[in-house]
Design brief:
SH3 type barrels; 2 domains; alpha+beta; Substrate Binding Domain Of Dnak, Chain:A, Domain 2; about 60% helix; three-stranded antiparallel sheet
């Protein structure tokens, strides 16, 4: 810095101390300028807060955020273009469910349900990765660009305005020792810097379209993610309801162990599973004579149940014997396709090739009828 520059900085510091300590009054800026300056200061804080809170929304775990930041820094130092994604909680839970669903195997309805849920959650996690990328590109990056360009320039201009004002006030206070031409030049510089800052602030505050556009993009990305997630979860709910119906209609199995003769090899003796009749209630305790050595043969027909659940249907919780020709006979546990509702007490339905009325209180709705 030159000697004249050092003297100018000293004069500014002298004027600032004089105002702060001695109560000297400097040149007052107009109300409109001060109002814009205050609004710009709020926006500067707002932009930083928005970017920080949005990052917390997308990546809520601070430890993982710190780890990703460190890995990104190391990759840049090494000149690598490697990017590490944030581990989505939905994907982590889905991976856990998939693992144990496969461990339980296809013979387990619960294992199959775990596999279905795990796969759906992993898809939700992948959709969230897409959401992260989209929001960063359409919301965070534009705000960051605004903060690092326009806001940074305005901050520099306001600092220059304050410095020119201090220089002018110092020379005005020492009028007589400082030439009138020097005071006039200081005033011209002060007014020029003020006009430049005022114009930049006005352009920023008047650009509502550029400020609202990232907000609209944020909401569009969130809506797209939630629509996709809802579609995935609704499909999953349909599959789970089908599995639940299949598991409910599955014949009950009971275990009976054989008595091991003295001296016999225990490994050569197995237990037996007794199968209940499919039409009998699971709680009746009645056994049939059909015996099987493994429960694998009782895997329910999941595909058939899934086809039924793609349309309005219900499951009978009690058996019903018709008393009129237009009523439908059915047994407990049977799944009936719903075709309509007569009133609050009766449905219309189809079971196989038979159709008729069925009482509302005798069935449990699995897939409701569409609203009229």
């Amino acid at each position: 810095m030159s000697v004249s520059g050092m003297k100018k900085q000293f004069h500014k510091a002298s004027q600032l101390l004089n105002e702060r300590l001695m109560g000297a009054e400097g040149t007052r800026l107009d109300e409109d300028f001060l109002k814009m300056e205050k609004t710009v200061a709020v926006m500067n804080v707002l932009l930083g807060e928005l970017m920080s809170r949005t990052t917390e929304l997308l990546q809520p775990n601070p430890a993982y955020r710190a780890k990703l930041s460190m890995l990104s820094t190391v990759s840049r130092i090494r000149g690598q273009a490697r990017t590490v994604g944030y581990p989505q909680t939905e994907g982590m839970l889905g991976k856990c469910m998939l693992f144990y669903g496969q461990e339980l195997g296809p013979a387990s309805e619960f294992g199959g349900a775990l596999t279905d849920v795990g796969g759906a959650l992993q898809k939700v996690g992948q959709a969230k990765d897409v959401l992260d990328v989209g929001i960063k590109r359409t919301f965070i990056d534009p705000l960051q660009g605004l903060q690092q360009s326009e806001m940074k320039q305005i901050k520099y201009q306001l600092k220059k305005v304050n410095g020119q004002r201090l220089d002018f006030d110092y020379k005005k206070r020492r009028r007589g020792k400082v030439s009138t031409e020097s005071v006039r030049l200081a005033w011209d510089k002060f007014m020029t810097s003020k006009e430049l800052a005022e114009k930049s602030m006005f352009v920023l505050l008047d650009s509502d379209v550029d400020l609202i556009r990232p907000l609209a993009a944020l909401i569009a990305s969130l809506l797209d993610f939630h629509h996709n997630a809802q579609r995935m979860l609704l499909d999953l709910q349909s599959d789970l309801q089908a599995r639940l119906t299949a598991a409910s209609n599955k014949p009950a199995l009971h275990f009976r162990s054989e008595k091991i003769p003295v001296g016999a090899d225990p490994s050569s003796t197995v237990g037996f599973y007794y199968q209940l009749s499919a039409a009998a209630p699971r709680s009746s305790g009645e056994e049939t004579s059909a015996i099987t050595s493994s429960p694998d043969s009782f895997i329910s027909n999941f595909a058939d149940c899934k086809l039924l659940l793609n349309q309005p249907c219900c499951r009978a919780i009690f058996s019903f014997t018709s008393k009129r020709d237009d009523e439908l006979d059915f047994s407990e546990g049977e799944v009936i396709i719903l075709t309509g509702q007569v009133d609050g007490d009766w449905y219309e339905g189809t079971l196989g090739e038979r159709s008729g009325l069925l009482p509302v209180s005798y069935v449990e709705v699995l897939v409701p009828l569409p609203l009229p």
